[in-house]
Amino acid sequence: MQRIYNDRMSSTETHATPDYATLARDIKRWAIELGFADAAISGTDLGEDEQHLQRWLDGGHHGEMEYMARHGSKRTRPAELEPGTQRVISVRIDYIPPGTANAWDVLGDAEAGYVSRYALGRDYHKLMRGRLQKLAERIHGVVGDFGYRAYVDSAPVLEKALARNAGLGWIGKHTVLINRHAGSYFFLGELYTDLPLPLDEPASAHCGTCTRCIEVCPTQAILGPYRLDAKRCISYLTIELKGSIPEELRTPMGNRIFGCDDCQLVCPWNKFAQVATEPDFAPRHSLDGAKLVELFAWSEDEFLKRTEGMAIRRTGYEGWLRNIAVALGNAPKSAAAIEALESRADHPSAIVREHVAWALAKQRH
User: Fold this and answer.
1) Is 122 assigned a ligand-binding role in the annotation?
2) Marked catalytic residue, from 26, 109, 145, 153
3) Active-site annotation holds for 346
């Protein structure tokens, strides 16, 4: 566990034992001042979640995401990941900025490429980690040297369960965290700490009998309440999967080329979704509704340049072309789509060639 000190904040400073209740209130206020939408505090007990995770792994629902099983119990036992951890400060930040093209309109335009709303602008990882570091520095100003570690989707952390236990929301039937005042369009981050801060109350669930997320999933990836088969999930297929997309899942993918938001789009709680205040989350290169033919024409250099600092980089150029090829196969038959696909028919990548051939067959018949 990192211990915070430097020339400006020496570990030899002496501080009176803090009033942890007051400190907890200050931490939440500082988090808001630093640009987070909310912050709350949980303990480290994730026993039930550990059992749920193990059942999910045993069922093989993680697909090629071997990292989900690689770290043993460190994911569900924070003190094993970072010895000394007593509390977890969970934070969230809203990510859909004003002016973003309407998601349903883009999904309804089969000639456009749909990119998950979280990935349209700057990658959130560094931004949130920087703010968590600043939060740690503010805490140091009160308590002196203390142990902590900041995480933003960067280690074996069960972030949704920790955020639920802190009261930031409940895990919906689609396995996404829902906040009753802000819906589900937000990122999460954590500050593991050895400070014995008072705990916040866990959030209660409010999905009721609603099953819209299960019913709308294009590939039936949500097997039942709280049961997601990642191998069928379009987010997995377009980002995590590095090989060939199963043929039976290509047509249901429609024009979704990076991620999928359908289960969130139909969630009634997202009528309370908050607009992002971070300008760096604004869509870049008109990716909130760009045409497939235009995106497919990007060279590798263009892809790398235009996606610098963005989450889209995760799929890689080969994956980018693979995904768009599938969407072009699902697009209305047109000479423009066929011409675009033919331009990649002899691509060096066998993965790209395979998906282009599939798409051309659909376009021509």
Assistant:
1) no
2) 153
3) no
